[in-house]
Amino acid sequence: MHIVVCIKQVPDSGQIRVHPVTNTIMRQGVPTIINPYDLFALEEALRLKDKLGATVTVLTMGPPTAADSLRKALTFGADRAVLLTDRYFAGSDTLATSFALSMALKKVAEEFGKPEIIFTGKQTIDGDTAQVGPGIAKRLDYNQLTYISRIVETDLDGGTIRVERRAEGGLQVLETKLPVLITMLEASNEMRRGSIENALIAARADVVTWNAQAVGIEDLTKCGLRGSPTIVKKVFAPTARTEKAQIVEAEGKADARAAALVEAIFAKAPAVESDLLENAAQHYV
Amino acid sequence: MGEFNKPFDAIVVGAGPSGNAAAYTMAKEGLNVLQIERGEYAGSKNVQGAILYADALEKIIPEFRDEAPLERHVIEQRMWTMDDRSHTGMHYRSDDFNEEKPNRYTILRAQFDKWFSSKVKEAGALVLYETTVTELVRDLSGKVIGVRTDRQGSPIMANVVVLAEGVNGLVGQRSGLRDELAPDTVALAVKEMHFLPRETIEARFNLSGNEGVVIEAMGTITKGMTGTGFLYTNEESISVGIGCIVSDFAETDVTPNELLEAFKNHPSIKPLLADSECKEYAAHLIPEGGYKAIPQLTGAGWIVVGDAGQFVNAVHREGSNLAMTTGRVAAETVVSLTRKREEMTAANLAAYQKRLAQSFVMKDLKKYKGIPELLHKNKGNFFGTYPKLLSQAMQTWFRVDGIDKVSKEKAIFRNFRETRTLWGMMGDAFRVVRAWR
């Protein structure tokens, strides 16, 4: 079995600051990490590899420095790393990204065998769109399973997979035919620590590097900023709330304390009192 | 799997200045080198003031100025003796330091170490991050033949292990190569990074372009403890910090944080930091025991470099240059033995110590071997009484108040004599001169 995990190198959002004057994100000097949601996808792929035997390829699109994230993925136990990098890809939105990645995935299929499963994280922490995974599935005509919390069973002979999907109001158990694209939910597993052998392999490994031409992209207008219909109209930093939480101190029995609390709320927001009284008048009189 | 069993020519433990210097030097000479660093990347765990002394790095990477992330080159050194409200300064500023190849730079270690590590990889060494060496592996004769890490799997073998593990030196300690650090030979330093626009820094410190200023301070700022404070100008930030001997902290119950807050709020320091934003804080140990605290440096299959070998000249605030130099010299020793196909025995590796003895590293540490103890034993006088007396003398001297100068001189001398007796002062002077020679 061949599994591809699509990962993204993102700035460590815990260390990003917004420039107070220009409102732009200050990326300079901010360390990069593998998108945390992608680690759940990678670990799930490695678990399938342990259980069923598989080759795991990690794929990313990004600047040449994204090779660091790929190398890190190799230390966890992935077998092969592919970097898709080209200045034509700069400024890609989700449409252009899923196009470029799907072309790279076709090339991966040609070179290393067609992947039965493509994993991604549910979304990235820098874009938060959750669109690239489904975009790839659509372009490659793969079935798609999004927001997956658990893989129940993989039947390679029958060519099916059964998973649990977290949905509003409950848990769905879904089964579909391979090949499939799965986007993994957070907390679905815990990333392992790679062995010393994995670490040595990763340090020695060559990252397969492809540009637009190498993956057969002829129409460059589909790439990067030119291929991206999304327009960022405005970036702004949310202003910090100025009001502070108020602690109401009261003694006595529960009723008395509740009354003191209600009084404090009414004093602060008279509209709440009048609304409540009006409501009560309509319903209880 | 056969590949993993083939021993490396050398394993370097740690990717700080000494480890990078050693790994780079050996890899560049064609040795098969593995470097193991516990941090997520080189520099992620490393803390320093930080001043880079060009000479030591130049001997390893001559063209470093073209690529290394450097902040400002130092053109001015201010040495301050402080009491609670004043400082007496000796400043040296020279346009000669605006030279084609400047002598000292301020740097940010997280960026600098990352660059140095990239050079190590370019030179051909294999570098593992996020991996901690837990212990040394020995053969039956006791010779060190490899290391074990915190990752699952077999030990990794090498002809020699270069221990560049830093001040704590846990691997060496655990393996019985040296004792635990004595609390009176190690300082705990804390620092903060304060961001300011570069124009503000340049206006505030009278600088232009990439010129930089260094302030080293001593006196009542350490509240009677043995230690110093510092303030360095970076490109768009200021590093400010203070450190004291660990056993002094334990005695006085003063916390490093209190000390740094007081230093930052000192009337001589506060205006220099005005309107800045603190974006980073860090703490680190500095080995300050000097010559007498140097542990055993070589044995069968192992060699110690950098802070792990206590290579810090506390008097001159030099450490990273000693680290890089010891790393380079150790590497050169290993390279020459490898070339001659000689074994990494204790006797052969001892050549490293002979080389060091001829270098500034050992000569300087030997010269100041009495200083750490002297300062520590007389800390009350050197870090309290004398700075106060000096401030009072300066104030008496410069205040114009209708008192004649002869009376002022007498008052100053009386103040010194009453506070510290003539014999006491002469004794201190004698001891300093003797320790300095």
From TrEMBL, chain A:
<dbReference type="InterPro" id="IPR033948">
    <property type="entry name" value="ETF_beta_N"/>
</dbReference>
<dbReference type="Pfam" id="PF01012">
    <property type="entry name" value="ETF"/>
</dbReference>
<comment type="subunit">
    <text>FixA and FixB form a heterodimer.</text>
</comment>
<protein>
    <recommendedName>
        <fullName>Protein FixA</fullName>
    </recommendedName>
</protein>
<dbReference type="InterPro" id="IPR014729">
    <property type="entry name" value="Rossmann-like_a/b/a_fold"/>
</dbReference>
<comment type="similarity">
    <text>Belongs to the ETF beta-subunit/FixA family.</text>
</comment>
<feature type="domain" description="Electron transfer flavoprotein alpha/beta-subunit N-terminal">
    <location>
        <begin position="22"/>
        <end position="219"/>
    </location>
</feature>
<keyword id="KW-0813">Transport</keyword>
<dbReference type="InterPro" id="IPR012255">
    <property type="entry name" value="ETF_b"/>
</dbReference>
<dbReference type="InterPro" id="IPR014730">
    <property type="entry name" value="ETF_a/b_N"/>
</dbReference>
<comment type="function">
    <text>May play a role in a redox process involved in nitrogen fixation.</text>
</comment>
<dbReference type="InterPro" id="IPR000049">
    <property type="entry name" value="ET-Flavoprotein_bsu_CS"/>
</dbReference>
<keyword id="KW-0249">Electron transport</keyword>
From TrEMBL, chain B:
<comment type="function">
    <text>Part of an electron transfer system.</text>
</comment>
<comment type="similarity">
    <text>Belongs to the ETF-QO/FixC family.</text>
</comment>
<feature type="domain" description="FixC-like C-terminal">
    <location>
        <begin position="372"/>
        <end position="437"/>
    </location>
</feature>
<keyword id="KW-0285">Flavoprotein</keyword>
<keyword id="KW-0274">FAD</keyword>
<dbReference type="Pfam" id="PF21162">
    <property type="entry name" value="ETFQO_UQ-bd"/>
</dbReference>
<feature type="domain" description="ETF-QO/FixC ubiquinone-binding">
    <location>
        <begin position="210"/>
        <end position="285"/>
    </location>
</feature>
<dbReference type="Pfam" id="PF26311">
    <property type="entry name" value="ETF-QO_FixC_C"/>
</dbReference>
<dbReference type="InterPro" id="IPR049398">
    <property type="entry name" value="ETF-QO/FixC_UQ-bd"/>
</dbReference>
<keyword id="KW-0560">Oxidoreductase</keyword>
<dbReference type="InterPro" id="IPR059103">
    <property type="entry name" value="FixC-like_C"/>
</dbReference>
<dbReference type="InterPro" id="IPR039651">
    <property type="entry name" value="FixC-like"/>
</dbReference>
<dbReference type="InterPro" id="IPR036188">
    <property type="entry name" value="FAD/NAD-bd_sf"/>
</dbReference>
<protein>
    <recommendedName>
        <fullName>Protein FixC</fullName>
    </recommendedName>
</protein>
<comment type="function">
    <text>Could be required for the formation of a functional nitrogenase Fe protein. Probably accepts electrons from FixA/FixB and reduces a quinone.</text>
</comment>
<dbReference type="Pfam" id="PF12831">
    <property type="entry name" value="FAD_oxidored"/>
</dbReference>
